[in-house]
Every structure is written in C-alpha cells, then in structure tokens.
C-alpha cells in the first residue's frame, strides 16, 4: 500500500513580509501531522501562531483527520506550552542522531480532533 501525503501549507503575511508559516500533512486517512510552525520573533504573542494553527487544523479536519500529531524539540519552552494549551498530550520521546552525531530528543504529542 502506498501512502500519499497531502501537504497543507499556510503563510501569514504583513505588508508582503512573511511573519509566520505552518505546514502539515495527512499521514494516514484520519491522521494529521504538524510538521512546522514558525512565527517571526518580532511578532510573537500576537495571535499569528494560533490563527495559523487553527487554519491548518480546519484543513486537516476537512480532509477527514480525527487525530493530530506534532513533534516538539525537548526543552522548547514556547512550543510545548502552545500545544499543551490546545489539548495535545505527551505520548513518547523519540531520539535521533544528526549527521554530525548530535543526539536530538523530540517529544511526540497527539490529540483527538
């Protein structure tokens, strides 16, 4: 069976400048994944991340997602509270090694939509 990922990007613009971006996919018929959420440092805490996240979630629901997953870097003191405030629950840690041998710990979170 071949899995077709449907990439869903959203971009926040202010006077034609990119101030935020979010991207995600449908990884299985009913599962959405958030791959990236970035907001320019100068525009944090202005609701941009929340609105981008809501738009992605709406699109994933429209594509029949009933579950949503995200990976957050261990120690990310902005990302972890952001996702937990939206109902994500910690599921497991995932350790990977970079090409330079550096150990990175990703925290896997999920929620039911």
TrEMBL record:
Lineage of the species this protein comes from: Bacteria, Bacillati, Bacillota, Bacilli, Bacillales
Gene3D superfamilies: 3.40.630.30
Origin species: Aquibacillus rhizosphaerae
InterPro entries (UniProt xref): Acyl_CoA_acyltransferase, GNAT_dom
CDD domains hit by this protein: NAT_SF
UniProt name for this protein: GNAT family N-acetyltransferase
Domain N-acetyltransferase: 1-113
Matches recorded under Pfam families: Acetyltransf_1
